[in-house]
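Subgroup meeting minutes
Present: P.N., E.W., G.H.
Scribe: E.W.

1. P.N. recapped why we're keeping a running log of single-chain structure predictions: easier to compare across weeks, and new members can see raw inputs and outputs side by side.
2. G.H. added today's entry (151 aa).
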Amino acid sequence: MESNKLYRLTVLTLLAALGAVAVSLTFVLLGAWSENKKLLRSEEMLLDQIDKLAKEKDYKEEYYFRLSNDDKFRERIIREKLGYATAKELVFRFDDAAGPVKAKVTDGNAKEAAAKAPQDADTGAATPPPTVAPSTPQAPAANPEQAARRN
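Output recorded in log:
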């Protein structure tokens, strides 16, 4: 009987040890699995970044090639980015899109700008653009007679 009890105790101990090993392996494998998912997401992000950088590199190589070899493209870029113009052009520079429109006349187009400016019918001289005088706030009148004089 004692050997039967000893056998049962040994089997029970082995099963408990096996259960403990299974639980610890489960935690280790779950940790490794979640780390693997993080690494796969990171790899995807890096591959996307590589694709994005490769496209940007191709774009810049094409841009450099066209800038070096295409005269029309080079001229357009110089005009757009650096603001250059030929002597026959009238260049408008807008300081603020929401504000008043201002035209800047460069040395190369001063004669054309003067020729295109509106002229006075009587004198033939160029007329300046109309200006609006800023309104100045007035202090309230002390009595009704002063208010009537202002208006």
